[in-house]
Design brief:
InterPro entries: Amidohydro-rel, Metal_Hydrolase, Metallo-dep_Lactonases. By secondary structure, this protein is mainly α. The protein has 4 helices and no strands. The chain has one domain (about 1-75).
């Protein structure tokens, strides 16, 4: 999967990529936690800012979600 992620990052950049959990299909690959860990591993070479873009900031910008609401949701989940 790494070559596909690397190609997507090179072609589009982290600001134009959005993480998607692919549930319930992810259940076939061992569950959401396993898929999430694989995603984090694939994104580990990125800077914290680029990783944040792929994992939520790009989607928040696209869907015009107020960053303060996103931060509040993140804090509530922690």
């Amino acid at each position: 999967m790494r070559p596909f992620v690397e190609d997507a990052l090179e072609l589009f950049g982290p600001g134009r990529l959005m993480y998607g959990g692919d549930w319930p299909v992810s259940l076939l690959a061992g569950g959401y936690a396993r898929c999430w860990e694989a995603c984090l591993e694939l994104l580990s070479p990125l800077s914290p800012g680029d990783r944040a873009a792929v994992l939520g900031a790009a989607a928040a910008g696209f869907y015009r979600i107020d960053p303060a609401l996103l931060a509040a949701a993140h804090d509530a989940a922690a």
